[in-house]
Amino acid sequence: MLARRRFRAGRHRRRARRRGGGPRRAPGGPPGDADRDGPATLLGADGRPVPGDGLALARDRLTAYLVDPDGIRPAVLLADESAAATLRVCDVSRDGRLALLRRGPRGGREAVVVRVADRAAACTLPVADGDPWIGRFSADARTMWLRSDDGAEFAALLAVDLDEDGRRTGLREIARRAAHDLELFALVENGRRAALVWNAGGTSELETLALPEPEAVPVPPRTVELDHEVVTRVAAAGPYGLVASLAGSQRRPGIWHLADATTALRTPWTARDADTVPPGPAPVRPVPMRPKARDGLRLGGWYHRAPGRAPGEPAPCVVHLHGGPEDQERPVFDPLYHELAARGLDVFAPDVRGSSGWGRTFRDADLGEGRFAAIDDVADCVAHAVEAGPADIRRLAVMGHSYGGYLTLASLVWHPGLFRTGVTVCGMSDLTTFFATTEPWLAESAAHKYGHPERDRALLRALSPMSRVDALSVPLLAVHGAHDTNVPPRESEQIVRAARERGHEAELLLLHGEGHDFRRADSRRLFRRTAADWIEKRLT
After folding, report:
1. Whose CA is closest to 438, among 402, 462, 413?
2. pTM score, two decimals?
3. pLDDT digits (tens, 9 = 90+) for 104-126
C-alpha cells in the first residue's frame, strides 16, 4: 500500500466555499483559466465518496489515507483532524502495521506512530521544522529513525525503539552536532546506513553513517566530498546507491550519484555548467556575513558582489529578505540575484532572527513582540554592510517575497529614510486582514509565529505596516499573483492604494495565472525584469 495525502488541504477548503461545484474562472484571470486540479471529492473512512456536500465538511479538516495504487483494496483512513495546520504520511512499515505521520503547526511539529488497524496513536514525539520527511521505519519496524530537535537547540538523528504495537520502549541519540542542524537524511543499503546532511552556517556537509543495532558500539561517519555548497535533497537509489541534488552559487541544482561512500559523481541528468545559467556575466560567489543586532544577537547572511566592482568601492545594494520567516539564505544560484548583479547592483541577503539554521532559540526569537526586534535587525544588517565597506548608504533598496515582502514594508515604515525604494512580493501589509482572508490551515500555523487573530489583535495591528503607512516616503513596487490564496492580492492592493493617496509613487504588477509562488517561466522573467528595472532606475 502507498502512503499519500488525500488532497492539498488549502485548495480543498477554498472549493468548499463555492456553490454549484466544479471549476470556475478565478477573478482577474483570462477566460477559460479554471482551477487546474479540478473538482475535489471527500472520501469517507471506507475510501468511498461522502454523499451530499462533503466538501463543506472538509472545510477545516485534514485527512490522511493509505491508497492501494492498483485499486484492488479500498483506501484506509489513518487520521482525520479538524483545525489542523499540517498532516502528512511520511512512511509505512513493510508489514503494513504502522504508519508515521507528521502533524502540527510551525514550531510545534509532531511525529506520530499510528497503528493502521485501529488508527490509534501509539507514540508521539516532537520533531523539527524544515524537511517534511522526518523519519523512516527499520525493516522489522522495531526501530524508527527520526530527525528531531526534541529538547535540544539543533536537530539530530534519534532512534526510537518500538514494541509490537508501536509504543516507544526506548530513545537513543545516533548522531548530533553541537551547532549544526540535521536538515536531511535518507536510509541507504537496505536500511543499513544513513545519509546525513548537516547545515553548517548555510552550507551543507554530507556524511554516511552505519546504523547501529541496539546497544552496539557506534561507528564513526564517513564524510562525502561535495563540489557545490548545498544539498537540496538526498534519496536512496536502489538497494545500494545514493543520489543527491546539489546546488551552488555558480550553477543551478543537478543530480549527483554517490558511487562509493566518499565521492559524488555527476549523472547524465545534470546539465553542463555552461547551460545552467543565463548568458551574461558569470554568477558571483557570495561571502558570508555575521552582523550583530543592537541587542547583541549574532545574525547571518550572504553578500553577493556585482562583477567588475573594485573591492573597496561602495556600491548600490539591494537588501533581499527571505520568506518563512523560518527560511534561510543559502549560497545557491538565484536568477533574481543574477539579474540584479548584471545591472551592477550588489545583493545582501541576511538571516534576521526567526530564520532557521541557527538553532531553536534564534528561530523563536521573533515570536510575538519579538517581531519588532526582527524589523530592527534589517536596519542593523544594513549598518553592518555599510560599515564593512561594500554597500553605499546613499543607494539602498529593500525587497522580499511572502514574509520577506511583509518585512520589506515594515522596514520602509519603521526605518524611513534608510532605503530609496522597496519591492514587496506577495507580502502582508496588514496582519489582521491577512488572517481574515488567508487559508484556514495557514492561519492556524501562522498564529504561532505572529500572534492569535483574536487574542492578539492589538499586537497584530501594531506590527502591521498599514498602521504606520504615513511614514512611507519612497517609491514602492508591489508584485502579486492574482490567484494567491496564502497571501491574497488585497494585501498589495491596499498598501499601493494608501501610498498613492499620500502622493507617493506606487505601482502594482499583478501576475495572472499565478499564485503565491510564480510557476510560469514567463511570469518569473517578467517579475525579475520589472523589479530590476524599478530598482536600477532609482539606485543608479
Report:
1. 402
2. 0.84
3. 888 788 999 999 989 999 999 99
